[in-house]
Design goal:
The radius of gyration is 17 Å and the shape is globular. Helix 1 crosses helix 4, helix 1 crosses helix 6 and helix 6 runs antiparallel to helix 7. The chain has eight helices and seven strands; from the N terminus they run H-H-E-H-E-H-E-E-H-E-H-H-H-E-E. Strand 4, helix 5 and strand 5 form a beta-alpha-beta unit. It has a single domain, classed as Rossmann fold. It has 240 residues and is of the alpha/beta class. The longest helix has 23 residues.
Length: 240
């Protein structure tokens, strides 16, 4: 049974996730940085550094949202970053951001389904995702498509929430994640379900070795997991 944002409504997980992100798009960036105390910015930088020696020229940012990870990827000096997302609300905030920063010639944000990418096989030097694979309706299908569009030897770098294991941090984190974060998120975003869905989707997500085994199953090689900030999130790396 997959975790969905709006339990009282009809519609697939994909449709519900798109609606949820449309609803919270205006407040998403602020809440992201506020609820993580700004640590998410450092996580993104660290994830992008995993690709430094590869010097990818064509980068695909899946579930790009408002484009923060795509912007971070410019540190690698690529020719182009293409961002894809199913939420038009998030994309319009992102496009506005690119225009303001004069980045719209280097970053293109497109509407599209992460699990059925509209790109040819062997197209990108690197595929990146931050906090997006957890929202896939079919995780295996999404990762397999990611593998398909990568060039041979290309790398996928995935940043995703994980579950801390150490006492007492695990208990403190769980309390914050379950009780404090949803209250703040729901109050500011005005979407009662979005920030209740967040901890539920993290709990249901196969993190650590479980996620690496899915990456291996769809064909990635040399897979590895790097835990960040006492295990709150992890960077996963796989090569085609």
């Amino acid at each position: 049974m997959s975790v969905v944002p709006y339990k009282d409504k009809q519609g697939s997980k994909k449709e519900q996730v798109a609606t949820m992100f449309d609803n919270i798009s205006g407040k998403y960036d602020f809440l992201n940085h506020f609820l993580s105390l700004g640590i998410d910015i450092a996580w993104r930088k660290k994830a992008i550094r995993q690709l430094k020696k590869d010097q990818p020229k064509q980068i695909l940012d899946i579930a790009t949202g408002t484009g923060d990870f795509a912007i971070e990827a410019l540190a690698l000096n690529p020719d182009k970053v293409t961002g894809v997302d199913i939420s038009e609300g998030m994309l319009s905030v992102g496009r506005e951001k690119m225009k303001k920063r004069g980045l719209d010639d280097r970053i293109e944000l497109l509407s599209g389904d992460s699990e059925a990418l509209q790109f040819d096989d062997n197209n990108f030097d690197a595929v990146i995702v931050s906090f997006g694979v957890r929202n896939f309706e079919n995780l295996e299908k999404g990762l397999a498509d990611m593998h398909r569009v990568l060039k041979p030897g290309g790398k996928a770098v995935i940043l995703e929430f994980s579950k801390p294991k150490r006492f007492p941090f695990k208990q403190l984190y769980n309390f914050y994640f379950k009780w404090i974060l949803p209250k703040i998120g729901n109050t500011i975003s005005k979407d009662q379900a979005a920030y209740t869905y967040l901890p539920e989707s993290v709990r249901a997500f196969p993190d650590g070795d479980d996620f690496l085994s899915v990456l291996n199953k769809v064909g990635f090689k040399d897979t590895q997991c790097k835990a960040l900030t006492l295990g709150i999130s992890s960077i996963y790396i796989g090569t085609k």
